[in-house]
């Protein structure tokens, strides 16, 4: 996305916060640069950096640098790394996504009395990739702006809470195995950026595995969009022009580049300076991502989501973790 002039101030403060967090991490290693960036971001984003002049740039900094970071991760892994996921890793993601959608739709319709469209948006956001999935599904099912915004706010808040909790409780739930921790984080946490941020609070190896598991979820986004589109069509009359079947398969650019780099790194010996540089840049952009998440999490957003819908999101997040832990213990 092109950087506009009104974004510069927000991008600047996010980068400064990220650099300061890297510096402070030398004295607070138990928090790490990522954790410091997240906590300071929440504090500053709701106080001195609350003015709307910073908002466009901070939103840009939360979303786009991490995409570059994920693309560069392709230079730090090989096909041998993916082999460690094995068939049960793919089965885990498929079952995790399917069961998440079923649970979310059931909770929305039977427990929290949400509309079918809101439930679908919650299902897509939690099962696939947060706000990106919601943005993809919303036009396909004819959801209005209020439904979309409420779902985005709820799913984002749930993702932030999981980001803070999973690094602490994850080792108790699945052990110290990096692959299993990667499966838990990559299979549960909502957005791509939040997955990387959560895993970074554990260790760099978990970041690699969590990203791979998350990639499988993102690749399946088109399938989810088509499925929800057809469900919405059944709930609407044939004359409803707001619901149209999605066309084509859209895979995010950073996933394509990630795969290309991964193949190159598997076939030839990439100089250490390049792989090291890619790892360092990717790591820094992970800090930027968490700084952006913190800065963009406004207390007003939590309030506007409403108690009922926020509870819907939190219950969904808890059940996602439970499902993932059961599947991990059963499949791995």
Provide an overview of this structure.
- There is one protein chain.
- This protein is mostly helical and 332 residues long.
- It has one domain (84-288, 300-331).
- It contains 16 helices and no strands.
- The longest helix is centred in the middle third of the chain and has 30 residues, at 145-174.
- The mean pLDDT is 85.
Kindly list the characteristics that best describe this protein.
332 residues; globular; mainly alpha; 16 helices
Order of helices and strands: HHHHHHHHHHHHHHHH
Question: How much helicity do the residues have?
Answer: over 70%
> Mean of the pLDDT scores?
85
Structurally, the number of domains stands at: 1
Based on secondary structure, the structural category is: mainly alpha
Indicate the overall shape: globular
Overall strand count? 0
Point out poorly predicted stretches. Answer: none
Distance between the termini: 39 Å
Number of helices: 16
Strand content: under 5%
The Rg value, from CA coordinates, equals: 19 Å
Main sheet: strands, sense, barrel: none
């Amino acid at each position: 996305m092109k950087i506009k002039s009104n974004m510069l101030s927000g991008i600047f403060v996010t980068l400064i916060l990220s650099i300061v967090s890297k510096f402070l991490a030398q004295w607070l290693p138990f928090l790490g640069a990522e954790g410091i960036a997240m906590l300071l971001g929440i504090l500053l984003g709701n106080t001195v950096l609350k003015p709307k002049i910073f908002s466009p740039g901070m939103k840009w900094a939360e979303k786009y640098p991490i995409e570059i970071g994920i693309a560069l991760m392709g230079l730090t892994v090989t096909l041998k790394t993916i082999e460690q996921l094995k068939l049960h890793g793919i089965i885990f993601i498929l079952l995790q996504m399917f069961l998440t959608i079923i649970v979310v739709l059931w909770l929305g319709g039977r427990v929290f009395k949400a509309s079918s469209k809101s439930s679908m948006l919650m299902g897509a956001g939690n099962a696939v990739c947060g706000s990106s999935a919601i943005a993809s599904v919303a036009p396909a099912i004819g959801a209005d702006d209020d439904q979309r915004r409420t779902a985005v706010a709820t799913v984002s808040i749930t993702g932030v809470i999981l980001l803070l909790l999973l690094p602490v409780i994850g080792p108790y739930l699945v052990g110290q195995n990096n692959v299993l921790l990667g499966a838990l984080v990559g299979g549960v946490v909502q957005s791509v950026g939040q997955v990387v941020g959560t895993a970074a609070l554990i260790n760099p190896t978990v970041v690699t595995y969590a990203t791979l598991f998350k990639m499988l979820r993102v690749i399946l986004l088109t399938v989810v969009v088509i499925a929800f589109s057809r469900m919405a069509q059944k709930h609407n009359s044939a004359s409803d022009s707001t619901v149209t079947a999605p066309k084509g398969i859209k895979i995010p650019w950073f996933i394509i580049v990630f795969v290309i780099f991964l193949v190159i790194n598997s076939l030839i010996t990439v100089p250490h300076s390049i792989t090291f540089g890619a790892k360092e840049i990717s790591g820094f952009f992970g800090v930027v991502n968490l700084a952006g998440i913190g800065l963009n999490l406004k207390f007003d957003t939590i309030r506007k989501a409403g108690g009922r819908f926020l509870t819907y999101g939190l219950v969904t997040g808890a059940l996602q973790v439970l499902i993932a832990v059961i599947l991990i213990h059963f499949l791995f």
